[in-house]
Amino acid sequence: MKLLMLCREPRLYSCERLKEAAEQSNHHMDILDPNRFLLKLEQNAPHFSMYYQPAGAEPYLLSDYDVIIPRFGSASTRMGCALLRHFEGRKVPCLNSSSAFLRARDKWLSLQLLREAGIPVPDTALIGDEFNISQGMSMAKMPTILKTLSGAQGIGVILAEQMQSAVSILETLKQAQVPTLLQDFIAEAQGTDLRCFVVGNQVIAAMKRISQNGEFRANFHRGGLAEKIQLTSEEKNMAIKATQILGLDVAGVDLIRSQRGPLVLEVNASPGLEMIEKTSHIDIASQIIVQAEKIAKSS
């Protein structure tokens, strides 16, 4: 097959591993920056044409691919999803569709969809622009977690221990027009969470992430450590169901163990491979390529 990965940083561990796995399966993979595309809608065929411009070179008309694998960050969500929709218009399967990617990237929308489907999540609130922030905060438990609606790798996640500081932070984010939600702080988790890596309808790997040095976020990019973890059947089923509800083929589902049972913190449409592959010793990249082969055959 001829595969295309959409990623701004081809030298990232995840990109290099996926390219290596593709080549080991005798597939060709290109890695292109979604922000270097020009998309066109035209009356005459092809209706969904696209041009790519490498750095310092002339643009060229892009040829077709068998499967698209999106790996772009939150800063490229708008252009990346427009590009996925263009490929979908050309009947090219994407390993995470544009609509599923958008649902996962909007933290509030994804939590709404999960809760509607009966998936337990931490108590969460979204305050409208004209709602008094102080009155909104009076309905929240302290300490509380503030999360921007887009963000990854722990960026945009803030622990506010006092109501006054929470109000101040929210007012600043509101002034900067950064939508933010409030979420219960699960103290009993003691700075740990679970990352479940879902491919297709299976949890193929899992790890427990552990925060370090007083940092409440357990993300790898925030200095967190990881260890192998044995998930319960309930946790596996919850991760798979959350992935299906958002319509994803590949996902990193973050769970937290609370006094009322496991809760879904969020679902990542472009989960990193480095920490979980090294912790679990599972070749996740090859299983993603196998999933790409499956959707190519079924399309």
From TrEMBL:
**Entry's Pfam families?**
RimK (PF08443), Rimk_N (PF18030)
Q: Which residues form the ATP-grasp domain?
A: 111-293
- What is the free-text note on the cofactor? Binds 2 magnesium or manganese ions per subunit.
Q: What are the record keywords, sorted? A: ATP-binding, Ligase, Magnesium, Manganese, Metal-binding, Nucleotide-binding, Protein biosynthesis, Ribonucleoprotein, Ribosomal protein
Q: Which Gene3D superfamilies match?
A: 3.40.50.20, ATP-grasp fold, A domain, ATP-grasp fold, B domain
Q: Which HAMAP family match?
A: RimK
List GO molecular-function terms, semicolon-separated: ATP binding; metal ion binding; ribosomal S6-glutamic acid ligase activity
Q: What name has this protein been given in UniProt? A: Probable alpha-L-glutamate ligase
Q: Which InterPro entries match?
A: ATP-grasp (IPR011761), ATP-grasp_RimK-type (IPR013651), ATP_grasp_subdomain_1 (IPR013815), RimK (IPR023533), Rimk_N (IPR041107), Rp_bS6_RimK/Lys_biosynth_LsyX (IPR004666)
Write out the GO biological process terms: SOS response; translation
EC code(s) of this entry: 6.3.2.-
Q: Which organism is it from?
A: Conservatibacter flavescens
What are the names of the required cofactors?
Mn(2+); Mg(2+)
Residues that, per the record, bind ATP:
K147, D184, F185, D193, R217, A218, N219
Q: Which GO terms describe its cellular component?
A: cytoplasm; ribosome
